[in-house]
Amino acid sequence: MNMSLLGRLPMPVKLGVPVAAGLLAAACGTAAGSTTGSTAAGTPASSGSTTATVIESHQGSAAPFLTNSSGRAVYLWAADSMNKSMCSGACAQAWPPVTSKGQVTAANGAKAADLGTITRSDGTKQVTYLGHPLYYFAGDSGPGQTNGQGSDSFGAKWWLVAPAGMKITVADSATGAAAGAAHSSPKAPASSGASSAGGTSAGGSWG
After folding, report:
1. Dist CA 80 CA 88 (whole Å)
2. Cα 93 to the chain's mean position, in Å?
3. How confident is the model at residue 1 (pLDDT cuts 50, 70, 90)?
4. Is residue 77's pLDDT more than 50?
5. 70, 116, 117, 141: least buried by Cβ within 10 Å?
6. Per residue in 19-57, pLDDT tens?
7. How is the chain split into domains, by residue range?
């Protein structure tokens, strides 16, 4: 401001000019600080939304098989290869992959050393067991149900998984008749009456 003009101003006005300038500067600093603070505080808010997946063993009518922590049966597919899923699209709708957003742990007879994950094409982490990608069956509506056992939908067999990591090829009678009739995905009747009483295929890692 021109000093000659400032000299003509009344004293109260002269005193108000620097005070107003100081208040304006403080207000600007406060606004900038609050914006920075809210950004930093909001950044990690979504980082804690991970969920652990637990794989454990459930005693079936013929042999123990793997389930999740809620008792829902998990399956392997004969069309898959080691640590590679061939099930996508309509197949993955009927046989949803067992996925995890956090740590994968073992309990009640399952082996932690046999657990792993692979990354699917959509970026999700699918749980594996001894190299087998694991799946649920959409036709299982409750814990312990095994409606998918022996199905040949999508061109290859679906089997329950033993805690040792092998496929189970004997029928499991834990499924109720009503639940078995209700599922809509194609399923071939399990023809494993001639299978070994042990319930697992000999050396049956694949196929």
Report:
1. 11
2. 15
3. low
4. yes
5. 70
6. 444 444 444 444 333 333 332 333 333 334 467 899 999
7. 53-182
For residues 124-133, b (16+ Cβ closer than 10 Å) or e, as one string? ebbbbbbbbb
189-195: which pairs have CB atoms within 8 A and are 24 or more residues apart? 189/150, 190/149, 190/150, 191/150, 192/150, 195/169, 195/170
pLDDT of 59 strictly over 80: yes
Q: Token pair of 146, please?
A: 């095994």
94 Cβ neighbours under 8 A, 6+ residues apart = 137, 138, 139, 153, 154, 185
Distance CA 161, CA 146 (A): 11
CA distance 177 to 60: 16
- Whether the CB-CB separation of 129 and 80 falls below 8 Å is answered with no
d(CA 169, CA 192) in angstroms, rounded, equals 6
Q: Are 146 and 175 a contacting pair, CB within 8 Å?
A: yes
Contacts with 2 (C-beta within 8 Å, 6 or more apart), sequence order? none
In three-state form (DSSP H/G/I as H, E/B as E, the rest C), the secondary structure along 29-77 is HHHHHHHHHHHHHHHHHHCCCCCCEEEEEEECCCCEEEEECCCCECEEE
Residue in the block written with tokens 């920075």: 36
- The tokens for 142 are 């409750």
pLDDT at 155: 97
- What's the mean pLDDT when you consider all of the chain? 73
Q: Is the Cα dihedral 172, 174, 177, 180 positive or negative? A: negative
